[in-house]
Write a structure and sequence with these properties.
Tetracycline Repressor, domain 2, single chain
Length: 160
Amino acid sequence: MSAIAERANSCIGSLYQFFLNKPSVADAIRAQYLNEIEQSWAALARQAADLDADVLACRLVSLQLEIVKSHPALLALMDVPPSPRATTRRELIRARIATVLIAHKPRLSRTAAMRIASVVQQVSRGLLTLYARADADQKIAIVDDFKAVLKGYLVPKLKC
């Protein structure tokens, strides 16, 4: 907690006034991040109907990279501490992806959208893991590869 207080330019006593322990700090940061991220997903859902499937696949990759870049601690915070809430957070992300897919193709059933969203989510998890570990000179190639993978998967699923 002292490292957190130091990084926040606060004294540890002030930190303990608001948070009981490290998990409560992590929960607060996660909640703030997820609220901001929710707005990003909602914006993409509003645009999805006007995008073709190729562009939508690229936007899904780009959005997730933007989120990770603007919230660098998010990946580490998503599953820490491990809890049933981590599963709930993953389900929330999957539901947001499904919402974007349905906005793009309104005839898509919720069941089909959730199944497709599960695949997109797993592919995205691989992307984010590889991206986080990659050297700077490899990041662009990784992003291009994942855009190609998602296009190859999504375009046939979302054809009108």
